[in-house]
Amino acid sequence: MPTTHSADEALVKCLLSTQLPRLAALPLARLDPAGSDNVIYRLGGELSVRLPRGEWAAEQPEKESRWLPRLAPHLPLAIPEPVALGSPGCGYPWHWSVSRWLPGSPPEIGALSRPDRTALDLARFVAALHRFPVDLSLAAGPHTGFIGAPLARRDADTRAAIAATADVFDRTALTAVWDAALAAPPWPHPPVWVHGDLHPGNLLMHSGEISAVLDFGGLGVGDPACDALIAWTLLPPSAREIFRVESGLDDDSWTRGRGYALSTGLNAYTAYAATNPRVAASTRHQITATLADFQRA
User: Fold this and answer.
1) Is pLDDT above 80 for 253?
2) Which end of the chain, N or C, is surrounded by fewer C-beta atoms within 10 Å?
3) Which superfamily does CATH assign the domain made up of 115-296 to?
């Protein structure tokens, strides 16, 4: 059974007071909902504290502390700026991090005021990330066997999820989407940097425009198709085409990306839909968008 931790306020205050005493007096407020991998607190007006919820995410703070400052100057959207890397302590077993607070709120599906501009901004971000020189020693994470990896690694789990949701979605139609993605030729070039988890919850909007990309826990190198995920998690069909063209993803990568979006949507739906209405709604949209896009193509 994986080790998990709730990271309550008392723990965070203990960690700050013992390791970063200059920040310990700042107001602390837990964010809810936060991500599935990290508990997040706002610290004063300018900072945030992120603590992995479980051992599956325990390597994220060190990885982000190392790589985000190197990537930031080359990307057209803001990303988290690490301020400090905390160590295990106060009964908490993993590294944790403090970053600059980024203003904004996650975009709402179906409520983009300028979807074409949003698609263009996201495409330019993805293209810039994919151009950055890779470090082949870095494995994607969490779920290191899946992010940026060939889709075949997801086959058994995806087919099981299609079967498990047959009372909700069209099993035959979803199988056709998945089979087409598996049949697409694999990425034939050297691996590129990938974010690996581009969905609305990992984006911020400010003044009607995408302002930042968050949560680089899945950062790694591999098949760029996985970063097409945002096309089916956020963008309407017309803007989706802008993203496809401007991101530079070829037709085969687009087909694999649609399969990746289907697979991750089904995985999240089976894991969280019964207990989290927000995740249920977003993943239902993701799954049905991939199906509609496949049928349209």
Assistant:
1) yes
2) N
3) Aminoglycoside phosphotransferase (APH), C-terminal lobe (3.90.1200.10)
